[in-house]
Amino acid sequence: MSTPLNWALVAHIIGIIYWLGGLIVAGHVLMRLGNESSPDARTALGDFEDKLLKRIVHPGAAITVLAGIGILAADPEYLRQTWLHIKLVLVVVLIALDLLMTARFRAYRAGKGTLEPQYAKFFYGSVAVLLFVIVILAVLKPFS
Q1: pLDDT digits over 107-119, tens only?
Q2: How many C-beta atoms surround the C-beta of residue 34 within 10 A?
């Protein structure tokens, strides 16, 4: 059935795929960028990372958040469920990781920072773990 709630859910899922899929790829690119010795390869990877963030990751984040607000507007009963409160805290952590990674990348591109492989691995792993936990919360709805 085609309802506003269903369309908000579709947009939310598509946004999540773009946002978190893009963040996982971005973490991998950061790992490669930090290990790359060729200036040409670093430039190409940096350009790719920049486009990935601007064209996929951040629009995906915006779609995810806006669609999430739409879901809550369509069915405010979700706001009474503990699993959603936990999920929202994890989303705030994801937003912080996204902003931290973007700031670190921009500083690196401006020549004001370095990219350590262990930072990229931490970022990559953190996003993946948060994704798994958020999916478990959203699908199984524990603590309801």
Answers
A1: 988 888 888 888 8
A2: 18
